[in-house]
Structure formats: C-alpha cells, structure tokens
Specification:
Jelly Rolls, SWM_rpt, Cu-Rt/internalin_Ig-like, 5 helices, signal, Immunoglobulin-like, alpha+beta
Length: 394
C-alpha cells in the first residue's frame, strides 16, 4: 500500500470525462502503511509505563498527544500523562501504577496532528483493544505494604530485589520476630522513603536530624558530631517481640571506621543500667554490645564493615554476631528495658543524642531474640540484596 500526505496540487485526467466538479480542497489523502503494532507490555521498566513496540522505527519528531491513546483494565483508571517516541517503541506514562492482577488493553487513534509515522511520512494505523503483557511483579503482602508507602517507587528490578528479601524473611521466620526494621539503603529519600519502618509503614517511621548524608542503595552516613536518626521506637513502651529476656538488635555497616562512638543504641538518662547498644569497632579494636543490661559484652574486631546482630535468647544468654559468626558471648543477666527511643548514628541518653559516629549504615532492626539460624538467614538475605544492588561489603 502507498500513501500520499500533503495537498494535491494537480489532477491529471487521461480519459473521457464529461465533467469534473471539485467542490472542496483535497487537503490530504492517506493510505496508512507505516510502523505496525507488534506488542505492548507494562512492568518491565516501571509499573506505570506501557511500552508499545512496532515493526519499524519512527520519526521521533512526531509525538502524538496523550488523547490519541487509550487504556482499559488498570486499577484506579490512571490517566496517560506523557507520550514518548524512541526507535520502534512508544512509551505511555500513567498517572499511577498498575497492579500485577490487571488485565490491560491499549488503543491508538490517528490524531489530526503529530501522528505516529516513519521517516518517509508513512503513518501507523489506528488500533484498539490490543492486549498489554503484564510483567508487574507479584509482591508478598509484607513488601507490598512497604512499596505502597513509597512516594517515589523503586524501579522494577530494585523492587524485585527487596521483595525477595522480605519474602525470604517471612518464609524463614525471622520477619515475624521483628518489631521494627529500617532499610536505609533505599532507592531514594526524597520523601522519607529511607526512614520507613518496614514492619509497619506509617508507625514508628524514623526521623533524621541535622541531615546525615544519604546515598541511594547505600544508606546514611553520620558526620560524627551532630547527625543522627531517631527510630521513634523504644523497647519499654513499644516492644512487642522485643522483651526483657528475648531481644535482638542489628545494623549493617558499609564503612570501616575505628572510633569511640555508638552505631545504634539507647539508655535511660545518665546511666547504662538498662542499655541496648552496638559499637562495631571501638578505639581499642573491639566490638561491644549491651542488651537490656549494664555490663558491656565485647570481642576483637579490626573492621567495622558487615552485619552485626546483638541477640539475647534467655535471661543469661547473649551473643554478638558479625557476618553470622559469634565474636562474643556471655551469661550476663538482663536487668531492664530502656524507656528511651533507639537512635542510630549515635546513642540516646535519655533524650539527648551523644557519641555520634561517622559510619555509613544501610539497615537497622530490633525484635525478639534471634537464634543462630535466624542470624544466618537474615544476614544472608540482606547481604544478598545488597549484592544484587552492587553495594555489599562482604
């Protein structure tokens, strides 16, 4: 098929014709034979982008208005906000995300201006009701709650990484033991995404003070003098799984810093009697913890990078794990629960931030006492996620 686009300036009559009555200007004659629809999909680049593939490349200077396209079957009926044309694809950006269960169709009507066309001016045909392949990941309910809480959503690949992490925690049992978890290594913190409490988004979300430096997929770094994060959760008032004789707390640290400072912790004002704290690498090259007690438990540590878990599983059983290995343990008895909020990048001394550190933290959590199996599974799962992001440290 051929096509003519433009004003017809001359009509040649080669046979007998008694009369030719042209009552209006013939503005354009079009026989469409341009790039043809091949397929459409959503969830490959983002959950709010429909990518339509054609069988030939477009002239990218011609971009139809959003009104030239239509969709059906998307939860919430989001509108098309942006049309972009590149190579053999047209991408429709929606005002909201589709969901994994949506059965979606897409259509296109040739508009009066800027129709889809190739370099020779051949236009694409109108089409309607074409199926859109739905590639949106089916998230577990626990990660779906986190995803829904994000103002800016992660890309599909990043979301899949974290869904795998949470799903493994649910399957292995450590997720149910936690009260709070903060994944500072989020894709963005433009709207507080890196401060969300993953266990129950919107409840006990954290707050950053004095702007600790944030890097996507890595976490927050303190300046060692004024910056810290308040988790807005304290063991005495808010602990459900975290109780006197069954408690754990942990952090993932990306930088090797030797300092007489605290990575996470809290105690009642002016005392360490009911303290819960982790120090990855003190100035004496030891790591130290307290968990519901006054007595510090320590073990040698020459590198602060890694995953640390402080776990109390009985009144007189507590361990400090680094990268799944117990580097210290004791029979020191539990004493009490602090009524101070847990801070990270510092310790909370009854409402005052002290002992600020200069490390980079990627995650923090607190909950019930973790067994060696729990520690192994959680450490492996989180480090696998960081490895997939290219930001792991072991």
């Amino acid at each position: 098929m051929t096509e003519v686009v433009g004003t017809i300036s001359q009509i040649k009559v080669t046979g007998a014709l008694a009369q030719l009555d042209v009552t209006a200007e013939i503005a354009r004659v079009v026989l469409v034979s341009g790039p043809a629809f091949v397929s459409a999909e959503i969830g490959t680049t983002a959950d709010n982008k429909i990518v339509i593939t054609f069988d030939a490349a477009f002239n990218e200077s011609y971009v139809p208005a959003t009104s030239a396209f239509s969709t059906t079957g998307i939860t919430g009926s989001p509108t098309i906000t942006v049309v972009s044309v590149s190579g053999v694809t047209v991408t429709l950006t929606l005002s909201g995300d589709a969901t994994s269960g949506d059965t979606i169709t897409v259509g296109y009507t040739i508009p009066g201006s800027n129709p889809l066309q190739d370099a020779d001016g051949k236009m694409s045909s109108t089409f309607a009701g074409e199926s859109v392949t739905n590639n949106i990941t089916v998230f577990c309910a626990e990660y779906q709650a986190v995803y829904d809480a994000y103002t800016i959503k992660p890309d599909a690949a990043t979301a899949a990484i974290w869904n795998t992490y949470v799903r493994s925690g649910v399957a292995d049992g450590w997720w149910a033991k936690e009260d709070v978890e903060y994944v500072y290594a989020a894709h963005t913190n433009d709207n507080g995404e890196a401060l969300i409490n993953w266990k129950n988004p919107g409840t006990f979300d954290a707050a950053a003070f004095n702007a600790p430096a944030f890097v996507a997929n890595e976490g927050f770094t303190g300046n060692g003098t004024t910056q810290y994060i308040d988790c807005n959760w304290n063991p005495s008032a808010n602990g459900v799984n975290y109780v006197l004789n069954s408690a754990s707390m942990g952090v993932y640290i990306r930088t090797n810093v030797k300092e007489a400072k605290f990575d996470i912790g809290a105690n009642n004002i002016g005392q360490h009697i009911n303290a819960t704290q982790i120090i990855a690498r003190w100035s004496d090259d030891n790591a130290y913890i307290r968990i519901n007690t006054a007595t510090p438990l320590g073990g040698g540590n020459l590198d602060s990078r890694g995953m640390y878990v402080s776990a109390r599983t009985a009144v007189n059983v507590n361990n400090l794990y680094k990268n799944k290995v117990s580097i210290a343990n004791s029979a020191d008895a539990s004493v009490g629960l602090t009524s101070s909020n847990i801070y990270t990048l510092a310790r909370n001394d009854g409402g005052s931030a002290l002992d600020f550190n200069a490390k980079q933290l990627s995650m923090a959590f607190a909950g019930a006492g973790m067994t060696q199996t729990d520690v192994n599974n959680k450490t492996d799962a989180f480090n696998a996620a960081m490895t997939a992001l290219g930001t792991n440290v072991f």
